[in-house]
Specification:
Blueprint lengths: L1 E3 L5 E9 L3 E4 H7 L4 H8 L3 E4 L6 H15 L9 E5 L10 H8 L6 E5 L5 H14 L5 E9 L9 H4 L4 E10 L5 E8 L7 E3 L5 E2 L2 E2 L6 E3 L1 H22 L9 E4 L4 H11 L10 H4 L6 H11 L8 E8 L3 E8 L3
The protein binds coenzyme A (COA).
Length: 330
């Protein structure tokens, strides 16, 4: 477990998102596998998800989220000096999606890397960017959480295919004297990693044989138990270390994996469900994009305001967790 409560010098100065046009509803899922709208809504809170076009990949989702940011805010990308893309579904392992973004937007030669922290990816990227800004070496960092999960979903497995969707979120983070990223928490339960994986080269995770299809495989019950146990512990640790209480949180923005997980975490921590922002109802579990998509829904309907204290909490494959306390600055 790692905790930090350093003086912040990071401020979020622009924000954008993207989801593909194609909608796959629960009724559509009924035609693909033996399931029902009622079962999916009751167990997950998901009603529909967005699916990328056949020729639309993670890089395209990244580009569209950055373009959306440019359309909404007066951003200047010319002096961006680092790009971090969090994804588990890159078009290619290399070149990185970050290098592709650098080229696409004509950004000057700068640092560019992809990170892989599954559904904790967007918050992990925020934490890494915060660290780079704190050194003073970097001044303006573009982070993106993007996943084209439909390209890695087994649509014959009803226990997983009903969950996942595609999307992306981008944020610009800048160095400032009085930053708004107020606290940070990370944790990893690596010994449980085989409960949720996407295979690459090996057919084994430390003695646990795995399927080598390249599709997402999970033991839903194990992941569920882990999440509802670990996330409340992390919230308590993050708040205590930063001298805050649950009452002070304006918005709890957990990874939108499953509404039942969110409800259980709220019950265990005393955070009111009404103070929670989620995106799974409309977009399913979009992994590294789920937290920005939830924030975006709240920006659009005016729920979130400048100065609101937000607790962003990513968790998932690894199994890993990344959380931050952030004062909303837009
Ligand atoms: N439709 C209908 N029935 C389904 C189904 C579906 N889509 N998927 C599974 N089932 C069935 C199972 O086959 C099982 O049937 P059985 O009792 O006859 O064997 C029954 O429903 C219960 O399965 P189980 O896996 O125990 O269901 P669950 O209540 O745990 O719900 C998840 C399944 C996946 C929704 C749930 O485990 C979950 O959300 N886990 C966390 C997953 C997650 O969020 N992962 C991402 C973290 S980043």
């Amino acid at each position: 477990m790692t905790l930090s409560a350093l003086k912040s010098q990071t401020k979020l100065t622009a924000f954008g998102v993207y989801v593909p046009d194609r909608i796959l509803t629960n009724n559509d899922m009924e035609k693909l596998v033996d399931t029902s709208d009622e079962w999916i809504v009751q167990r997950t809170g998901i009603r529909e998800r967005r699916i990328s076009a056949d020729d639309e990949y993670c890089s395209d989702l990244c580009y569209a989220a950055v373009a959306n940011m440019q359309a909404r805010y007066a951003v200047n990308l010319a002096d961006v000096d680092y790009i971090i893309v969090a994804t588990s579904t890159p078009d290619t392992f290399f070149p990185s999606m970050a290098a592709r973004v650098q080229a696409k937007f004509g950004i000057r030669s700068c640092g560019a890397l992809d990170i892989q922290a599954a559904c904790a990816g967007f918050v992990a990227a925020l934490q890494l960017a915060n660290g780079l800004l704190l050194t003073g070496v970097h001044r303006k960092i573009l982070i993106i959480g993007a996943d084209a999960l439909s390209k890695a979903t087994d649509y014959t497995d009803r226990s997983t295919c009903i969950l996942f969707g595609d999307g992306a979120g981008a944020a610009l983070l800048e160095w400032t004297e009085d930053g708004t990223l107020l606290g940070s928490y990370t944790a990893t339960s690596g010994a449980s990693g085989h409960h949720l994986y996407r295979s690459s080269l090996s057919a084994d995770i430390d003695g646990h044989p795995i399927q080598t299809t390249g599709k997402i495989v999970q033991d839903g019950r194990e992941v569920y138990k882990w999440a509802v146990t670990q996330v409340p512990k992390g919230i308590t640790a993050l708040l205590e270390n930063n001298g805050r209480t649950t009452e002070e949180i304006d918005w709890f923005v957990p990874h939108s994996a499953n509404m039942r997980i969110v409800e259980s975490v709220c019950e265990r921590t005393g955070i009111p469900l009404e103070k929670t922002l989620a995106s799974m109802e409309l977009f399913g579990n979009t992994s590294a994009a789920s937290i920005p998509l939830a924030l975006d829904l709240a920006i659009r309907d005016g729920r979130i305001n400048k100065g609101d204290l937000c607790l962003l909490y990513g968790f998932g494959g690894g199994l890993t967790e990344a959380a931050v306390l952030l004062e909303w600055s837009l």
